Structures are given as structure tokens and as C-alpha cells.
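okkk here we go again. third time trying to get the thiamine diphosphate bound version out, last two times i messed up the smiles copy paste (missing a bracket lol). double checked this time i swear
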Amino acid sequence: MNKKTDELQEKHIARQENQKQRLVLSREEILRDYSLVVQSRAASEIGRREVLSGKAKFGIFGDGKELAQVAMAKAFRRGDFRSGYYRDQTFMFALGQSNIEQFFAQLYAHTDVTADPHSAGRQMNSHYATRLLNPDGSWRDQTELYNSAADLSPTAGQMPKLAGLAYASRLYRELDELKQMTNFSRGGNEVAFGTIGNAAAAEGHFWETINAIGVLHSPAVVSIWDDGYGISVTNDLQITKQNLSVLLSGFQREPGSRDGFDIYTVKGWDYPALLEVYAKASETARREHVPAIVHVVEMTQPQGHSTSGSHERYKPEERLEWEDEFDCIRKFREWIIDQHIVQIGELDQIERNARKLVENIRIKAWKAFSLPIFRERQELADLMNRLQVGLADPAPVQELRETLLHKQMPFRKDILSAAQKALVLTAGSPSPARERLLSWHEDLTRTHRSRLAGHLYSESEESALTIPAVDPIYSDESPELNGFQVLNAAFEAMLTRDPRVIAFGEDVGQLGGVNQTWAGLQEKFGPLRVSDTGIREATILGQAIGLAIRGLRPIAEIQYLDYLLFALQGMSDDLATLHWRTAGGQKAPLIVSTRGHRLEGIWHAGSPMAGILNLVRGMHVIVPRDMVRAAAAYNTLLLGDEPGLVVEVLNGYRLKERLPDNIGEITMALGIPEILRQGEDITIVTYGATCRVALEAAELLKQVQIDTEVIDVQTLLPFDRNGRILESLQKTSRILFLDEDVPGGATAYMMQQVIEYQGGYFWLDSEPRTLTAAEHRPAYGTDGSYFSKPQAGDVFDAVYYLMHESDPAQYPDVFRGKSNNEREV
Ligand SMILES: Cc1ncc(C[n+]2csc(CCOP(=O)(O)OP(=O)(O)O)c2C)c(N)n1
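finally!!
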């Protein structure tokens, strides 16, 4: 055959393929798709205009990515999950999980959850999260829903949890004990769809997640929307060889094998090919639990990256022309005409209708958002009118009023700060009108602040804060064991009691954990309940987030506290914010379990507690001082519906503890400190491993007639909910905060809680003090630790010289020590 015949043959085959697709989809469906993509494009264009005209703050849109998303949506079934990023508006529209009105409501930051059900004004536009919870915080039936996990802006941040969302299907399919959880899965038939941009695929999270999904043999379909750029940076600077498909080819499974991925490369403007790829990829993932990567190339970004700038600054002329020509909607249109599906005129009509429709809906969304604000402005203007009456000089208030009324688009910020300025201006002129304004300002501030502040923690009946303490019960038969054995017994009880408990981490499975706390449990409960993972902290966390979102109760072990930093990004950006940023729409009640303090060396003895505390507001942070308390912490978190971090004390595993008879039932009331030693002269506030240090110091101090009260805070988040520490301070009038973090770390946090929030300042007879580890990391070895971390002797010195300062006669300077204000800094 000559070249021409070859070409003809190829064209013929291509036409046949196209016709095959057309047989699957009706004319109406194709036109519905066309209408959808043009509506979505119109929303992007009008959305951009809204931002540029000042009605909204920032816009990022899915233009250029529409067609692939229509195809992906066709493969998406009820019960499936998406974990994606800010380009996926068309996908969400296609499934009816968002609509144009919600799109604009979110763009305007409408704080009403009915207007923006994805984030109630808390997230930037096009950050999606379907509502997985009922208003009371209980789970909805996920199998009836099209589910989307909550998006987040850090590029590739959506990836780690994709591993867990997909892995849940495998657990639901393969674990008999989960078969009754029919609200979460139908036989593990659910696929988790991930989406990511080409440039974000340069992130470590991407590669770690792909590897984890492969190792976990889980049904994920990962789409890469490749438009060749990451803002202005081209693929040659993002990706080795500039080609993700080539790099990813090592993940391709061998024919007949279930190990690895199916990898597809498809053009973002090729409608029939996209339909075929998604149908095939999702079908295989669903049936065989073989994951897929769909590399969608030749995508465009007609409006540029976001409203922050224009892409003409960095895209060459030829690229812009190419993007125009290969725009997926233009290509779709050409295909429809080529296939004789409709005439050009009909498509033009669809486009005109779409634009009109979007514009009308936008107006509706704008009115719903802005009318209450305009009403509030008018209320303030009226209050200001009344305020002016009787003022010696009404001009400044009048001017404030005029300025506010002349603002084209007032925000609440403008209104409330104008009200505050008016109150300041009239501070010396009390009147009933001013009183009214004061109350109005207070009420409105409270209302709007609370709209954005709620849901950081659970507000449901299952909130961990509602769980009362169940104390350990000991009998004559209660054996004395090593700490790790106590915890081992507790974990066994949890796994027995609750089939949803799934434990995993490095060396957790076969070995039973590096400290043997899981010993024998994989044998007993099987490799899916208690599993080993690779060394991949970010996706160990992600695995847990995904499983928890799908109704399971994961305990994810991070081998040592110092390595938590690899997972901290996800804990901070995704997990801790999840309930808040979805305004109570999603939760991930999981436990991150780790151990730390008091081993040897820089990366085994660190205590980055303040770093953690400050980054995970929205989680509970528990630092049990022994293993019985650790067991109580785990039991408590498993009964609640919030995520928590438990930091076990590393040097407690070999210490003897009695095993309570009710190890499976003991709980702790979160935020309730425990008095470890009563004393009259000074209060030492500490937690975890330094409890023993404080108690040792207290014995030394007793020898010089200083009577020390030692308090274990037990939980850093929440912190002393009932003011127990303040009660102690009211008795002793002196206080020392002690831990192994750096100076100004978690001790400063505790000090603020007690001195500022609890009002401890008013009860002090001496300056409040902190005692911490050194500023540098803990040096290696016994002496390295001795000189890096606070010892009993250091606590003794700190306390003694605090007492010396207030009573030098009774506590003379016989140790050549220094009081706080004489110390070298
Ligand atoms: C961790 C992180 N780094 C940087 C950014 C800023 N940023 C936002 S989007 C973006 C480019 C992403 O490009 P790509 O992944 O290709 O997705 P696209 O936006 O092109 O669809 C960058 C650098 C971010 N959001 N997160």
C-alpha cells in the first residue's frame, strides 16, 4: 500500500471510531455537553470580569480544561470520590455538584452555606467540597452521592488523601467485617478520581502518592491537566524530559499483571478519545482495582493563570495563537459540525443562550450576596444620622457617612470600620443614639465573625470534648507490665471492639512497631487491619485522611515525632482545616500516633511542639505521660469525631505500669490537667516526658523546704478548659512552665494560656518563668542530652532562684545560680 492509501485507511478508521462514540452518546447528550462547556466558559469569563471590576477579590477558573472534565464526569458514579484542585468547575457542574449560582456565590465569598455549600465563603472560588455530613455532624449516605473531598490551594496538597480515598474501596471490598457499612461502600466498587496540574506534578507529594496508590493496589484514576505551564514556568523547567507520560511509564503495569497503573495520554480537545479513555480507565479501576493515570495533554488556559495577571506577559505570540486554535471548545464545535450533528447556527444559539443564562444567574447571585450588605449600610447611615443630632460638631460623622454611602461596592469591613470610627469620634458625647450604634456594631461584628469562626472543631454530639473520663480500674489480678505491653493490650481491645479501626505505619505490621506496641496484632487481625507502609509520612497521613473521610477510624503511626514534619503540611493545610473550611461539611476523625522526646540525637529527641501546636488548630494534641494515659487518649479520640495527635513518651515503653482491668474502656476528659503532686510554694506546669523531670526536681526542692505543686496538662489542645492551673496559681502565686521545646516554644503557649487567658497575671507574686531545652537541637548521647534538655537540676535552679529573689534570707544564694533577670540570654 502506498502512503496515500495508508492515510485514507487511517482516516477511515478514525471516522469509524468517532461514529462508534456517537452511537454511545445521543445527539441530545452531545449538545448538552456542548451547552455545559460553553456555560462553564462563560462563567469563567464573567467571573474574571467580576474580579477585575472589584466585586470579588480573586478568581481562578477552569477555562481550557472543560472537555476532559465532561468526559471524566461521565465515568464518575455515585459513591465515587474526587480529590482535585481549583480547575474542576466543569466537572462539578456536569455532576450537578455545583452550579453557576454557587460558583458566583463562592467568588463573592458569600458566607451563607446554602449559597456556597462548598465552603460558606471560607475558601477561594472553585475550591470544592461536597457536603458529606448532615447538619448534626453525622455522616450522609455516601453511596447515594457524588462525593468530592475538600480542595486546598497548596499545589499537590490534594494528592496524599487520594491514596486513602482509593484504598478505602479496597478495604471495603476485602474486609468481611466492613460489609455492614453500606452507607460508605457497595462492595468496594468506588473509584477515587484525582486531578492535578502538570506543574504541581513536580511536587514530591505527587510522586509519593502515585507510588503509594500503586503499592496499595487501589482504584484511583489520576488525571493530569497539562497545559504546559505552571503560572509562567514552562514544562522544561518543571519536568525532566518535559514529559510526564514518559517519566511515569515506569509505573505502567505489564500485560496481565495487576501490579502498577494503566497509563493513558490523551489530548484535552479530543472529545471521543477522552470519552473512551475515561470509560476504560474507570471501568478497570472499578472492576479490578487497577489504578490509572490519564495524562491530558494539549490543554490551554485562555484567560491565563488567575486574575492576578495576564498570560500575555509570558506566553509567546505563537503559543497564544496555538492556544486559540486548540481551544477545547473550539475543537469540540468543529467536531460536532464535522460529524453533522447540528448546523453552525444551532451551536451559535446555544452559545448565546449560555451567555445570557450565566449573566442572569450571576445577577441573582450578586443580589443575594450584596443586598444584605447594602441593607446594613443603610442601617448604619440611619444610625449615623441620629448620632449627629446634638453633636457640637457633626461634620466628621457626616463625612464618614457620605464616604460610606458613596462607595460603589461596600464590604462589611467598610461598614463596620466606619461604625467604629463614628464611635471613636463621639467617645466624649454619650447619647441614646450612640448607645444604639454601639449595640448595633457589637451585634453585627459578632454575627459576621461567628459566621466565619464556627466549625473549627466538631459541634456534634460526638465531639471528643463531650466524652467523660472513665478511670482505670485495678484489682489484685491487674498485672504489672512494660509500658508497651499496656498499650498493646489497649490496641488489641480497640481492634476487637471496632472493625473500622485500621492501623498502619512503618514497621507496624509484621514487626508490630519499633517499640512493639502493635506486636502480634497483624497476625490476629490480618494485614489489612494492621499494616506496614513504606517510608512516606505525607501519604501515611493522606491514607488516613482518605480512610477517615470514607467512614473508617484509622490510626496512622508516624515512627518518631521528629518525622512528623513530613506529614505536618497535610495535617496543617488539609486535616486541621477540613471541618472549618467546609463549614462543617466534612470531617476526618483519625488519630496520628507518634512517639518522641528523650531518645538520643537531633532527629530522635526533638520536641517541635509549638511548631505543631501553632499549625494544627482544629486537631486535638495529647501528650500522655505514660501508657495507661495514652490508652485513655486513643479510646477517647476513637469515641469522638475529630482528628487528634497522640505523642507517646518514648522512654516509657520499658517502664512498669499496671494494666487496668478495663483497658479497652478507659478514657480521659480532654483539656483537664492532672495534679501529680500537691504543693504550696510554686506550681510547675508541664506534660509528657518532663512530668518525671518535674517530680524528680520536686523531691530535690523538698530538701530545701520548697513545696512544689506539679501539674500535667495532659492535652495541649485543648488546654485546661476549667482553669485548674489558675486554681493552683491562686494558691502558690508562683509558676514555672517546663518542657523540652525551644525557648519561646510550647512553654510560651502555656504561659499565654494561663497568664493572659486565665488571668493568672493577677495572682503572681514572682515573674512567671519558662524552662525549656536549649535553642539548638538536642546533641547526641547521654551528655549531649544532659546539656541540651532541661534536667531535674535545672528545674531545681530555676525554682530555687525564683524563691531566692522573693526571699533571699530564707533561700540564700548558696548555689551560685542566677535568677531569671540575671540570666545570660
Ligand atoms: C505549594 C504551592 N506552591 C506554590 C503555589 C502558587 N501556585 C498556585 S498555582 C501554581 C501553578 C500551578 O500550575 P499547575 O499545577 O500546572 O496547574 P494550573 O494552575 O496550570 O492548572 C502555583 C505556582 C501554591 N498554590 N502552592
